[in-house]
Amino acid sequence: MKDNCIVAQSGGPTVAINASLAGVIDGVKKSNKFTRVYGAIHGIQGVLDNNFIDLSLMALSKFPLVNTLELSPAMYLGSCRYKLPDFEVDSKPYEIIFDRFEEYQVAAFFYIGGNDSMDTVDKLSKYAKKIGSDVKIVGIPKTIDNDLCHTDHTPGFGSAAKYVASTMLEIAHDTYIYQIPSVVIVEIMGRDAGWLTAASCLARNDYSPAPHLIYLPEVDFDEDQFIEDIKNVLKTSRCVIVAVSEGIHDKDGNYISATSAVADKFGHAQLSGTGKALESLVKDRMDIKVRSIELNVLQRCAAHISSRTDINESFALGQAAVKYAAEGMTAVMSTIKRVSNDPYQWIIEPENVSLIANQAKTIPLEWITPEKNDVTPEMEAYLRPLIIGEVSLQYKDGLPMYLPVNHLL
After folding, report:
1. Same structural domain for residues 111 and 165?
2. Residues in the active site (predicted)?
3. 34 and 119: one domain?
4. 342 or 123: which carries more pLDDT confidence?
């Protein structure tokens, strides 16, 4: 009797993706449908390589779930950037995967990830249907980019947004101490969608208007206007703090990045140097102190400043995925539907994964100001609830205690 399941993680890490893993383990523990849960090391690649660890013992103890695993950064099971081919062209990987499912008596496969991971869920679901397999394939969302369609927001985004806003506020404090006029450019992750950069607006308070300017990839970037925007802010402020997405581009679609953008296996441009490019631009055009700061991977691994809302939602999405599979659902992803902003309320619903795979949700243009250098109050209202709440970590010798990842080393 097939009553086991496999869970895997893929794509870029977040500080909430392990909370979804914990949710899956907890869901299996409470389920009358599944017996054992195996973790595939390094995503779908781990299934192909027969690289598993048995997570069933973890399900027997509540401690590692709520106090360690769900609050550990990055991915406990590791990740991959493996793109499944079209099975009509090359079915060999699929044959290996479903042979593996048979070997481990798998009734359900859970894949936690973003756009590309949902592509894997979609392809596996369609192949299962083609061969008549009864294995349930369910996706669980994650990405700090917040660009998955058909869900109000994605796990990992709220914590990353909290980190970005907190860091922006701290950068502002550091900048304000000097009387010297200056420009500080903060580069934030976001290739095609500027949600995370937009979250920098949450740093603003009664005494600090920083970031003074926000530039997103949803609209074209104009270098001349950028310089004029800075000069306009300097008329009333000694310093200018700028938040900019790594993926901003000109009207012809060319990235502003200082280096040529290469593509990954999924065809996505790998960007770096946007902040440095703008720093050079300001140096060339203006006689003012300027520096750039690239937040880089810190945005996705700063578990010490996780959003409790984010962690709770991520855990619940993992639990829901197990419930869907137990009820016989397949080819779906668990999603968040917002009921209200104030008070913040949400529910979880399944959605057809084929509507999500390879799609991207960008910021509504009406949430970007006509000047293309800021966001509207509607954006702030959407963002604010997602960063609420703090986590309580255990510490040893002054440092957070995270779940060891010896199996990845």
Report:
1. no
2. 145 (proton acceptor)
3. yes
4. 123
Strand residues in 162-288 grouped as ranges (E): 182-188, 213-215, 239-245, 262-263, 269-270
Q: In this predicted model, what pLDDT tens digit does every residue of 204-238 receive, in sequence order? A: 999 999 999 999 999 999 999 999 999 999 999 99
Measured CA to CA in angstroms, residue 376 lies from 144, 379, 382 at distances of 21, 5, 10
- Answer yes or no: is 409 within a domain: no
Q: Which two tokens stand for residue 228?
A: 């004029």
The CATH number of whichever domain residue 259 belongs to comes to 3.40.50.460
Cα separation, 287 vs 182, in Å, equals 10
CA triplet 67, 104, 327: central angle to 5 degrees?
Answer: 70
Whether residue 251 is found in the same domain as residue 194: yes
Residue 398 counted as domain residue:
no
User: What is the Cα–Cα distance from 22 to 16, expressed in whole angstroms?
Assistant: 10
Residues comprising the binding site? Answer: 12, 115, 143-145, 189-191, 246
Q: Which of 122, 145, 310, 374 is catalytic?
A: 145
What is the pTM assigned to this prediction? 0.93
DSSP conformation letters of 352-391: EGGGTTT------GGGB-TTSSSB-HHHHHHHGGGG----
Question: Binding site for Mg(2+): what residues are annotated?
Answer: 115
Distance of CA 56 to the CA centre of its chain: 27
Same domain, 15 and 85: yes
Phi and psi angles of residue 220, each rounded to the nearest 5 degrees, phi first: -70, 145
Both tokens of residue 153? 């927001």
Q: Which residues are annotated as a binding site for diphosphate?
A: 12
